[in-house]
Amino acid sequence: MISMKVEKSVAALYVALEHSPKKLRKQLAIAVNQVAKKTESSLAKEIAKELATAQKEIKATVAITSKATSDNLSANVRQHKTRRISLKRFGGRQNKKGVRYKISKTKGSKQINGAFISEKLGGHVYKRNTKKRKPIDKLEGPSPWGVTVQNNLDDLLIKRDIEPQLIKAIEKRIQFINFKKTQGN
Question: Which pTM value belongs to this model?
Answer without folding.
Answer: 0.73
